[in-house]
Amino acid sequence: MTFSGFPTAALDFYDDLEANNSKEFWTAHKHVYDEAVAGPMKELTAALADEFGQAKIFRPYRDVRFSADKTPYKTSQGAMVADGTGTGFYLEISAAGVRTGAGCHMMESARINTFRAAVAHDIYGPQLEKVLADLRGFEVGGESLKTTPKGYDKDHPRIELLRHKSLTAGRMLGFDPVIHTDKLIDTVRGDWRALRPMVEWLNTHT
To answer: Which domains does the chain carry?
Structure first.
């Protein structure tokens, strides 16, 4: 099978799941998930694998063991192509539409320290600033401290970056008509290419 777009049924499925996140709903509509969500996601990521590598498509089931929220199913379907340890390219579909992204969603303490040292560096820090400034149309995110990290001056010229505990960037395609066509392959490919310099900086300096 070749990717021809996510059908409207994929968006409707997650819209309904948000309203009724139960085993009963899932069992009755699993065929919709398989045909409208999981199948197209596998086809889309397969079409991108020649350039970016094989994607991990996340399980639809939530781990509720340590969560106060006991709803059993995720209200989005994500996929990630790893590029380095804990870093890579991301794709998601939900009731809100399609989202693309990349970066490092979570850093352990040692990597956070290495990241901040690179951000503070006179050469590597400005390089990252330029990489992020060139990401026009993308939202830069990631978990961030509200306070000044220990060992750094609150007036540091890159203090906002130094506060980061993870670094991601992405954009919401939403309900753009392209998500229902095979042209989404080129859109995702273009977004991931644009985000590659950030991924490469993270892999080089953290």
So the answer is: 8-205 (3.30.930.20)
